[in-house]
Design goal:
CATH class: Alpha Beta
Order of helices and strands: EHEHEEHH
Number of domains: 1
Strand content: 15-25%
Structural class: alpha+beta
Shape: globular
Helix content: 25-40%
Radius of gyration: 13 Å
Largest sheet: 4 strands, mixed
CATH topology: Glutaredoxin
Number of helices: 4
């Protein structure tokens, strides 16, 4: 957590097809939470190696949301729309349901209630 903000991390490589698929999804989701989430875009970077080592088995892509939720692998199997909803719901939970206008869709609210 930086300055009261939660941090979201994406670890991957430009040479990885799944990383390329996941990158815009998580970047678009975290952009909705500007001012509440600090996005650490670690594509082809060794920055935040301590976080990567703690939450990953060494495989990519790996995303870590607020050091509370994490996953190794992409959400490509569920599709972009569902992956966006899941990442939005988890990030919304991390920020204490802020900003309120981000999660007005009923299906997002249902996902949040299942967390």
């Amino acid at each position: 957590m930086l300055g009261g903000w939660k941090a979201d991390y994406l670890f991957g490589s430009d040479g990885c097809g799944y990383c390329k698929w996941e990158h815009p999804v998580i970047a678009n989701v975290t952009a909705k939470f500007e001012g509440f989430i600090s996005f650490h875009d670690n594509i082809d970077s060794t920055a935040d190696g301590d976080i990567f080592a703690k939450y990953s088995d060494g495989h990519i892509p790996t995303w870590v949301l607020g050091c509370k939720y994490y996953r190794v692998g992409a959400g490509a199997n569920m599709g972009e729309e569902q992956e966006t909803k899941v990442l939005t719901a988890l990030t919304y939970d991390l920020t204490g349901n802020k900003p309120v206008d981000v999660c007005t869709a009923l299906k997002i609210e249902e996902l949040i209630n299942n967390i």
